[in-house]
């Protein structure tokens, strides 16, 4: 069985809004298996955004577990992420799952991995997946040098640049956004 390679997911917090976007490509070996996979979700009543990279079935399992943690910890994203990471690293079934998550609220961004990582990025953005470094590089440049752009414009342009470079990233983008209600 060939490993499924896929995706670029990027989230940016900028000027009171949070936008997550992802391409739609899933690749099996050197073949595009599907071009319109939906890799971003709203969780906890639409207050938290999540995106995944890796095995789709594994990612859905992890997303479900994260959503359960959010319910248990009343939407405390960081606590939910830490508890998920502990379970993911120690549970016999979960530790075999191959995926990564990015989660975001209007206040914080986190990257969660099966290695027990819960990372807060240095920049107001985080990316995962095959094309993540292309998208992240473009996003850092836009945040620094084009702050007049909206978060949606930055995410869209960064994903476009990644899709133009990375063979595992396509131009079938899906976006979700949150706006700070204050």
Q: What can you tell me about this protein's structure?
A:
The chain is an alpha+beta fold. It has one domain (4-177): Aminohydrolase, N-terminal nucleophile (Ntn) domain (Glutamine Phosphoribosylpyrophosphate, subunit 1, domain 1, 4-Layer Sandwich), CATH 3.60.20.10. It is 33% helix and 31% strand. The chain has four helices and twelve strands; from the N terminus they run E-E-E-E-E-E-E-H-H-E-E-E-E-H-H-E. It has helices spanning 56-72, 77-90, 132-145, 151-165; strands at 4-5, 8-14, 17-22, 26-28, 31-34, 40-43, 48-54, 99-104, 109-113, 118-119, 125-129, 174-179. The strands form three sheets. A five-stranded antiparallel sheet has the order 6-7-8-9-10. Strands 11-2-3-12 form a four-stranded antiparallel sheet, with helices on one face. Strand 9 and strand 10 (118-119) form a beta hairpin. Helix 1 (56-72) packs across helix 2 and helix 3 (132-145) packs antiparallel against helix 4 (151-165). It starts with a strand and ends with a strand. The model has no long low-confidence stretch (mean pLDDT 92).
């Amino acid at each position: 069985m060939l490993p499924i390679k896929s995706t670029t997911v990027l989230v940016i917090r900028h000027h009171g809004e949070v936008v997550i976007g992802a391409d739609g490509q899933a690749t099996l070996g050197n073949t595009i298996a599907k071009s319109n996979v939906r890799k971003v979700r709203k969780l906890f009543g639409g207050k938290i955004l999540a995106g995944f990279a890796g095995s789709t079935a594994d990612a859905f399992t992890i997303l479900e577990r994260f959503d359960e943690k959010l319910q248990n910890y009343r939407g405390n994203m960081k606590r939910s992420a830490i508890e998920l990471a502990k379970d993911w690293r120690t549970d016999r079934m979960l530790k075999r799952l191959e995926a990564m998550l990015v989660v975001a609220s209007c206040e914080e961004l986190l990257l969660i991995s099966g290695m027990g990582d819960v990372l807060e990025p240095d920049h107001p953005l985080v990316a995962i997946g095959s094309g993540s470094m292309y998208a992240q590089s473009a996003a850092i440049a836009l945040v620094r040098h084009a702050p007049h752009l909206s978060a949606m414009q930055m995410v869209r342009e960064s994903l476009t640049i990644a899709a133009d470079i990375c063979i595992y990233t396509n131009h079938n983008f899906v976006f979700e956004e949150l706006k700070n209600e204050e």
